[in-house]
Write a structure and sequence with these properties.
The chain is α+β, with helices and mostly antiparallel strands. It has 3 helices and 7 strands, in the order H-H-E-E-E-E-H-E-E-E. It has a 4-stranded antiparallel sheet with strand order 1-2-7-6, with no helix packed on it.
Length: 153
């Protein structure tokens, strides 16, 4: 008996996006590691990737992530070695897990994103806010360092 398999371009695109993300994650040097320090933790276990808008003004960089259904307590933001890492988890309710779905398009589980930032930022002044499923991170710019002339005595 022949089984009919339907082509889903959306599914294929998501699969390609996950592969590209995995490839680039392998080149990100400052990722979290497990207790033993061997394997990168969150990126390998990510189930979905939130969409991001990056903006730059004269005073700051702004990063906005769409994370609907994620409690702000389930979001972790870290900054180390010029890399801003954001991870979290969207949990499905047990009532949904017992249901027989006809179609499921919303992803649940862990997510992870990281961004390399320039060295000219005020890392101690990075702030984040969460409103209506949108996480906004403000990264203030430091003034550009100008060369200093040193007088020879």
């Amino acid at each position: 008996m022949t089984r009919l398999v339907r082509f889903s371009p959306t599914s294929e695109m998501r699969s390609l996006q996950r592969e590209i993300d995995r490839l680039f994650d392998n080149f990100t040097p400052a990722r979290k590691r497990d207790e033993g320090g061997s394997e990168p933790a969150p990126a390998q276990q990510a189930n979905w990737t939130p969409r991001v808008d990056l903006a730059e003004t004269e005073d700051e960089y702004s990063i906005r992530l769409d994370v609907p259904g994620v409690a702000k307590e389930d979001i972790e933001i870290n900054f180390q070695d010029s890399t801003l890492s954001i991870s979290g988890e969207r949990v499905t309710s047990s009532k949904e897990e017992e249901s027989d779905f006809v179609r499921v398009e919303r992803s649940a589980g862990r997510f992870f994103r990281s961004f390399s930032l320039p060295k000219t930022i005020k890392e101690n002044e990075i702030t984040a806010e969460y409103d209506n499923g949108v996480l906004t991170i403000h990264v203030p710019k430091a003034g550009e360092k100008k060369p200093r002339r040193i007088e020879v005595n």
